[in-house]
Amino acid sequence: MKRLLALPALWALALPMAFTAPDGAALYVEKTCVACHGAKANKPLLPNYPKIAGQSAAYAEQQMKDIKSGARANAQAAAMKGIMHLVDDAEIKTLAGWLETLK
Ligand code: HEC
Fold first, then answer.
1. CB 35 within 8 A of CB 79
2. Which residue in 36, 40, 60, 84 has its CB near the most CB atoms, within 10 A?
3. Full-model pTM
4. Complete domains list, the chain, with CATH
5. 62 close to ligand 1 (CB < 6 Angstrom)
6. Which residue lies with its CA nearest to atom 40 of ligand 1?
């Protein structure tokens, strides 16, 4: 009985979260990051693309913002800049937080 009561409570929590704050793993696929950085963010498409799994969230967030704004335009940054219009600041933060949790 207790379990039956708890289920709707969980849904009530989970549903609004699904609409307002998609999790990093979902964004990573939806925003095509996966194509260049690999399914687990540790096997990039090309050897000169970075492995980003486990990267510090604060660093990753800043790099993504800099690539998006053009402040970082080194090496292969142009490859990634092309898709950065797909993510806003909140999504960048979510993605960075998720990347940090990967091994
Ligand atoms: C078209 C390929 C491509 C896509 C798509 C792409 N990236 Fe990148 N990303 C790169 C490349 C290439 C670099 C390295 C740029 C350089 O050489 O300076 C990079 C750099 C980064 C960095 C900085 C790594 C570091 O060590 O400084 C992060 C973090 C990152 N990408 C996350 C993402 C996320 C999250 C997404 C999805 C929103 C994404 N990337 C989509 C190619 C891509």
1. no
2. 60
3. 0.85
4. 22-101 (1.10.760.10)
5. no
6. 33
Query: Contact, 21 vs 94, CB < 8 A?
Result: yes
Return the ligand 1 atom nearest residue 61 CA.
29
57 Cβ below 6 A of ligand 1:
no
Report helix, strand or coil for 23: coil
- Segment 5-30, tens digit of pLDDT: 565 655 555 555 555 557 999 999 99
- From the number of C-beta atoms within 10 Å of its C-beta (0-12, 13-18, 19+), residue 102 rates as middle
The one-letter code for the residue type at 85 is: H
Q: Tokens 């696929």 — which residue?
A: 29
What would the pLDDT profile of 73-89 be if each residue is shown by its tens digit? Answer: 999 999 999 999 999 99
